């Protein structure tokens, strides 16, 4: 087993939203949690793919927890300092209460049937490949939502901050109003017979494998379109797009 640890004096790496997983030379390796020195000032724990079935109590200083690819069935209480949580590829059926500091949640490939309250600090939620039939209210801070391969029949109201939505392979019969900020929409492999008005910001629309007979007006911003395996009466002219995929 290898556990990678970072300490408080490396805090500057968390200022960059676009490079969350960057490693540096100040990362320390341990073979067990018991060996970790100065545990109370640890800011990052990476213990992925170690066949762990349990985690110890987490330090109050922790900002990043990467525990994906284990055999975890429950997580300990999450500290109020936590910004990044990746607990994907485990056996989790429930998540603990999320701290109001959390910005990124990666919990895909588990056995989750419900998510806890999503607080206004969250910017990214990746919850695909679970057993979710409903999502909680989405925070106004959310920019990216991946909720594909679940059992969702409806989505909650989409926040005005949302830029990327991947909700394919669900049971969606309708989509709620799309925010003007949305750039990428992947709603393929659902039961949609109609799409809502498309925002002028949209660059990618993937709506294949549905029951669509007509598409709404397509915005001039659109660069990629996949509408294969539908019941469309009217084909789309290729000249309006940089890229069109036919399946």
Features:
about 250 residues; mainly beta; 13-stranded mixed beta sheet; about 0% helix
Structure summary, number of beta strands: 13
The backbone outline, from C-alpha atoms, is: elongated
Give the C-alpha Rg.
20 Å
Measured distance between first and last alpha carbons: 45 Å
Structural category is mainly beta
Order of helices and strands: EEEEEEEEEEEEE
Number of helices: 0
Quaternary status? single chain
Tell me about the biggest sheet? 13 strands, mixed
Low-confidence stretches: 11-23
Whole-number average pLDDT?
A: 91
Q: Major sheet: order of its strands?
A: 2-1-3-4-5-6-7-8-9-10-11-12-13
Strand content: 15-25%
Give the proportion of residues in helices: under 10%
Structure notes:
This protein is an all-beta fold and 247 residues long. It has a domain of 109 residues. The chain is built from no helices and 13 strands. Strands 2-1-3-4-5-6-7-8-9-10-11-12-13 form a 13-stranded mixed beta sheet, with no helix packed on it. The protein is elongated, with a radius of gyration of 20 Å. The N and C termini lie far apart (45 Å). 31% of the residues are buried. About 5% of the residues have low confidence.
Quick take:
The protein has a 13-stranded mixed β-sheet, with no helix packed on it. It has no helices and 13 strands.
């Amino acid at each position: 087993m290898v556990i990678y640890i970072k300490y408080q004096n490396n805090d500057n790496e968390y200022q960059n939203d676009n490079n969350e997983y960057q490693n540096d030379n100040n990362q320390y390796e341990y073979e067990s949690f018991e060996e970790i020195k100065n545990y109370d000032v640890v800011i990052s724990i990476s213990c992925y793919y170690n066949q762990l079935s349990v985690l110890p109590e987490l330090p109050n200083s922790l900002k990043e927890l990467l525990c994906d690819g284990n055999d975890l069935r429950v997580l300990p209480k999450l500290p109020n300092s936590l910004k990044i949580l990746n607990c994907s590829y485990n056996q989790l059926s429930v998540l603990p209460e999320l701290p109001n500091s959390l910005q990124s949640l990666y919990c895909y490939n588990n056995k989750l049937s419900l998510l806890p309250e999503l607080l206004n600090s969250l910017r990214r939620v990746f919850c695909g490949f679970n057993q979710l039939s409903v999502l909680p209210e989405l925070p106004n801070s959310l920019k990216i939502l991946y909720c594909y391969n679940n059992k969702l029949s409806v989505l909650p109201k989409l926040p005005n901050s949302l830029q990327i939505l991947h909700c394919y392979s669900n049971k969606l019969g309708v989509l709620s109003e799309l925010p003007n900020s949305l750039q990428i929409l992947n709603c393929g492999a659902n039961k949609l017979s109609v799409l809502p008005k498309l925002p002028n910001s949209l660059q990618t629309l993937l709506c294949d494998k549905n029951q669509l007979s007509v598409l709404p007006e397509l915005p001039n911003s659109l660069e990629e379109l996949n509408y294969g395996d539908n019941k469309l009466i009217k084909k789309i002219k290729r000249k309006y797009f940089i890229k069109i995929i036919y399946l």
